[in-house]
Specification:
- The complex is a heterodimer of chains A (374) and B (90).
- With 374 residues, chain A is an alpha/beta fold.
- Chain A has helices at residues 2-6, 10-23, 37-45, 65-68, 71-81, 104-109, 120-129, 146-158, 173-182, 196-201, 207-211, 224-240, 259-268, 299-302, 318-322, 354-360, 363-373, and strands at residues 30-36, 56-63, 86-90, 113-116, 134-141, 164-170, 190-193, 217-219, 245-247, 269-271, 274-277, 281-284, 288-290.
- The radius of gyration of chain A is 21 Å and the shape is globular.
- Chain B has one domain (5-86): SH3 type barrels (Roll), CATH 2.30.30.140.
- Chain B contains two helices and five strands.
- Chain B is globular, with a radius of gyration of 12 Å.
- The chains are: A alpha/beta (374), B alpha+beta (90).
- Chains A and B meet through α3, α7, α8, α10 and α13 of A and β5, α1 and α2 of B.
Chain lengths: 374, 90
């Protein structure tokens, strides 16, 4: 239990663990989903599952934006990158995501000009510096990064830049939660609500989870104690017979979110009728595209985008992992054919993907050691 | 990309009110503070930065906790800081 050795608040964690254990009804099993990839990362990094009674299971959700991008969209981005004069820019996390024709690193080796950026504003600078080229920013992320893309489009408009566009793949968290709640093969007792997404959208949008689905949801911070405390809050609600939206991460997340960020998203973007999610399939009104008023900055309006659906490799079980139906190490290719160096599926690519988190922090080995010793 | 990195405001930019110089991970760089409407910022204030934009104002204690957490996760934070250092919006 590295958490005990390394973390300064080990005593507090032990106290919370005792509280959690005391709040569990004997004989009852609890299954909570952490929606956010950042939470998954913390849980494995600090071995938090070792702090929970065996009757409390954490299920990893779809909250890793790199992981939920379907292969077809990667191929679309690659098709754009291979058109004349294009410089495709994207976050480093995206570079190793496999599409139907390899990753962006492979496309770069084939001659495409693909560059990693830290911020969409860096893509804008590349556009200013290269007036003869067409700069496309491959935008991904939940509501955490959508306002940055929207602000960047507004800035491009103000500067009257004519060689900058966005290939928009922003997704929204609420329809994904609904899809999971509607899924018949998964019975959850509650949710750890995402931290940074909630900084933007606030806690109000989660009210349907409590009202329509009768499940508690607690927005949680990213430190080990935050997550343990949020689990204790979920158990408290269930013990008291309450079903509510609560905010454990009040020191960062305002109940109403960030109004300016929501306003710029709404100004520049609108909901797509539907969008494909890896593992979850097509979900209505679950992603954003640029509004017609900003069509001149919309790569999908400017370039010929194939838009083909590409099935995931047969061996890949990212879909089941993203829905929480299987644990990463239950996938047939986990750690053998699929590793962070040569990923088959997206969950092994991003550091926030459940598979990469499991793999990197040695949970797999430890779990195996433990079970083989029994 | 999803990591929120705390930065301390060093200097506001009079000509471009959306921009501020921030000390983050031992480097100084410009970030966009245009999403923090109605939150008066001054040098010494802390913000949580996502992909070059400040998304929320935080207190110094939260900033310290967040930094400690980021350092604990290792490679992902190192990669994010490298990307941030290499980039210079504006």
């Amino acid at each position: 239990m590295r958490f005990v050795d390394e973390y300064r608040d080990a005593a507090k964690a032990q106290a919370l663990a005792a509280e959690i254990a005391s709040r569990c009804e004997p004989g009852r099993h609890y299954k909570f989903m952490e929606v956010c990839g950042g939470h998954t990362h913390t849980i494995y990094k600090h071995g938090l599952e070792d702090y929970l009674p065996e009757t409390v299971t954490l299920v990893h959700g779809p909250g890793c934006p790199v992981c939920v991008i379907p292969m077809g969209r990667i191929d679309d981005a690659m098709a754009i990158a291979e058109q004349p004069d294009v410089i495709l820019t994207t976050f480093g996390d995206m570079m190793r995501v496999p599409g139907g024709h390899g990753s962006f690193f492979d496309a770069r080796a084939r001659g495409a000009d693909i560059r990693m950026v830290y911020s969409p504003l860096d893509a804008l600078r590349i556009a200013r510096d290269n007036p003869g080229r067409r700069i496309v920013f491959l935008a991904i992320g939940f509501e955490t990064t959508a306002p940055s893309t929207a602000m960047t489009v507004l800035r491009a408009e103000r500067e009257a830049l004519e060689n900058f566009s966005v290939f928009c793949n922003h997704v929204t968290i609420v329809p994904a939660l609904k899809a999971i709640l509607d899924s018949p093969d998964l019975r959850l007792d509650g949710f750890l609500g995402p931290g940074h997404v909630s900084t933007v959208i606030g806690c109000r949008p989660y009210e349907f989870v409590a009202r329509q689905y009768g499940r508690p949801i607690v927005t949680a911070g990213f430190e080990p104690l935050d997550i343990l405390q949020a689990i204790a809050m979920l158990l408290d609600q269930l013990g008291d017979g309450r079903v509510e939206v609560e905010n454990q991460y009040r020191r960062v997340v305002p109940w109403d979110g960030n109004p300016k960020a929501l306003r710029v998203i709404g100004e520049v973007m609108e909901l797509r009728p539907y969008f494909e999610w890896r593992g979850l399939g097509f979900i209505s009104h679950s992603a954003l595209r640029l509004r017609d008023a900003y069509a001149r900055f919309d790569a999908e309006a400017i370039f010929d985008v194939p838009g083909h659906r590409v099935a995931d490799p047969k061996a890949c079980q990212c879909g089941e992992v993203l829905k929480g139906a299987i644990k990463p190490w239950e996938c047939k290719v986990f750690g053998t054919a699929c590793t962070p160096e040569t990923p088959i599926g997206t969950c092994m690519v991003s550091s926030e993907g459940a598979c990469a988190a499991y793999y990197n922090f040695g949970r797999f080995t430890r779990t195996r050691v433990r079970s083989s010793a029994q | 990309m999803c990591l929120g990195i705390p930065g301390e405001i060093v200097e506001l930019n009079g000509d471009e009110p959306d921009l501020a110089s921030v000390a983050v991970g031992g480097v100084r760089r410009m970030i966009n503070i245009g999403l923090l409407e109605g939150e008066p910022l001054a040098p010494g204030d802390w913000v949580l930065i996502h992909v070059g934009f400040a998304l929320s104002k935080i207190d110094e204690r939260e900033a310290a906790d967040a930094l400690e957490f980021l350092e604990s996760i290792g490679q992902a934070y190192a990669d994010e800081l490298d990307a941030l250092r290499a980039a210079a919006p504006e």
